[in-house]
Structures are given as structure tokens and as C-alpha cells.
Amino acid sequence: EDSHGKIWLGTRNGISIYDESSGVFVPAGSYLEIRDFDFFNNNRVYCMIEDQRGNIWAGTGNGIFIVNPETKSTSEIRAGGDNLMSVSNNLIYSLLEDGNGDIWIATSNGLNRFDPEENRIHMYFRDPVSSNTLCDNYTVSLSEDTDGNIWIGTSTGVNKFSKKDSVYSWYSISHGLPSNVVYDIIKDGNGNIWFSTGGGLAMKNPDDAAEEPFLIIDELRGREFNIKAVFRADDGEMFFGGIDGMVSFYPDSLKENTYIPPVRITSFDKETAGKRLRVNVYEEEVILSYKDYSFTIEFSALDYTDPSKNLYSYQMEGISDRWVEIGNRHFVHFTNLSPGKYTFRVKGTNNDGVWNTEGASMRITIQPPW
To answer: Which domain covers residue 335, as residue numbers?
Structure first.
């Protein structure tokens, strides 16, 4: 819908505009009485936006078409040539006008930015020898957060591009995304950024630290969504289309689990002379012989909303001060520790990744043979 209330429809064969008088969609060229609309014959339209000057930009499989409904002027942008107004590829998946009035263009081979003051297009590509770069040239979706950062969905994760310092951040499944294939990105009414992917739906608060995990909607884990199938209604309801249908919800209705779970050491088993023996975990200190050549410690974060999502991290002081993240595994095994004094510490989360940083601890002494 444009600023005048007209409904524009992008199809596999061009653009149509809804004619309120007849109640049907009419080809845009006929509706606007613009004869020079041949560009759209047999052209599939992937995206459309209206810029601050009232121009309608349409991204297609054969470049970009721009039309001003008031002046009836038209122009085209395509790949190729050495001019400053060409794009890196003609397959245009997404268009975004940022707060500065620049137009960002996601293509199947590179990211582009049109600067209206310079009247030129800048191109951005993945640099395999740099860490400050696009994660993939195959860019399919774009969004801008409240701080002016540009989020770019690709086939190998998502980038956040900071316009202030020209720095890229790269997020993937290792940061909590349900899939590296990011089909669409959209901002909700609270400023949170939502990602529809090849393996589910995820959300991130852009103000969170980079290492903060994405919130994954468990009910939609594993569901494959689709490109150009997102919408936010005026009342805040979010719609996401996928290969198995559509889902919709109000983000405010999704409550994060903020409960900080107690963490307990639940069992301690030692192996001596081939036998497995249980040790009392309620003692202040566990005393072992040098003959107790291996032992296993089990622990639990006491939140039962979805225990398979509870995460753990442990430290064995006396071996290393480093915390070791072990995912949802709730035990750790040690073998052939030298005689000495140790302190075992463990931290855990609930199903939404809220940590109990105090955790639980146990002192362990392994006695020497003399």
C-alpha cells in the first residue's frame, strides 16, 4: 500500500493496482496511463517499496523498475556496464529504504546501496580474507533496526551492518539461529528483529550483546518458512508464511521464561578396582584415594519447562580456570587426576537461556599414595 492508499500487487507477470471503482486489480500501466510499461512483460516481481519522494521501486528477476505515479516518469536499473547506476546482479530479492533515504538492494550476487545525494550505487561483496565482510553474496532479505543498523539475511546466516562504523557482525546456528538459511527479516512494534528461516522462527533484541542467544519459538522449531512471506499488521500482529501454511501471533503474547533455576549436584560416582561406587554429594568435601582413577559428576538445573533446552557450563579449579560449555549434557567425567585439591563448579540455564551464574560447587581432594 502506498502513501495514497493504493494497493500494488507484484506478480509473476508484472504489477497490478487495485481499482476501487471496479473492485478488481488492473495492470499498472493501464491504471496509471503510462504506456512505457513494457519492462514488466513476463517479469517476476519479488519486492516493492515506496521511497520518501513517492517513487515506487520494484525488484524483479531482471533488474529494478522505478515509477512515479504522479509524474508518470519511469526508469530502470540493471546489472552490467561501468556506469554508477548499475546493480551487481539483476535478480533482486529485497529493497529497503533506510532512515537516511538510502535504498538498500539485496541481490543473488552482492548487496547494493543507492545513495540519492551522490546519485550512484555502491556494491558490497563477501571478502574471503576479511572478518569484516558479508557472510555470503547471496542476499535475500533486509531490515533496519531502531539504531539504524542494517540486518541482511543470506543463505549462510545473517549479518548486522553498523552504518556508524562500517562493521559487520555475523550470526549463524552457532549463535542460536535455527537455520543458516534466512528467508526474511522483519521488525516488530517493540524494536525486536524476527527471522524466518529454513528451520524455524527466531527473534533477537538488537540491544542485546552479540553473544546473547536468539530466542527460538519452540513450537515452530524445524518448520521451513519461505521468502517474501512476512507481514506486520497495524495492530502489531505478525504473519509468517511457510511451505506448510501460515502462522500469526502477537509478539507481546510470547512470554520469555525469566525464572533463574537452582543448580544442584545430583550424584557423584567413582570407579575403584573396576567397581562403580556412589559418593555422598551432601558432604562439604569429597575425599578420594589415588586409586579412585575416574569419577563422574551429574548435575541438574531445576527448571522443568523443557529440560532438554537447559544448558550447562562447568569449571574444575585446580586443572583450569576456564569455563567449559557442554550444551544440554548434564554430567561430566574425569580420569586420572593427579593428587591434590580441586573445586568443581557448574552453572546452568532454564529453557530460555537464563543463567544461574552462582550455580553449585563441590570441593574434591585426591589423596596421594603416601
So the answer is: 263-366
What does residue 31 show for φ and ψ, rounded to 5 degrees?
Answer: -65, -45
- Phi then psi dihedrals of residue 230, to 5 deg: -130, 155
Query: Quick one: which H or E segment has residue 248?
Result: strand 245-249
Q: What is the CATH number of the domain that holds 304?
A: 2.60.40.10
Show Cβ contacts of residue 276 under 8 Å, excluding neighbours closer than 6 positions: 269, 270
Q: Are residues 138 and 267 in the same domain?
A: no
pLDDT digits (tens, 9 = 90+) for 247-267: 999 998 877 788 999 999 999
| % of the chain with per-residue pLDDT over 90 | 68
| CATH at 177 | 2.130.10.10
Looking at every residue in the chain, the average pLDDT score rounds to: 91
Contact between 181 and 140 under an 8 Å Cβ cutoff? The reply is no
Question: Does residue 301 fall inside a structural domain?
Answer: yes
C-alpha 69/C-alpha 54 separation (Å) is: 8
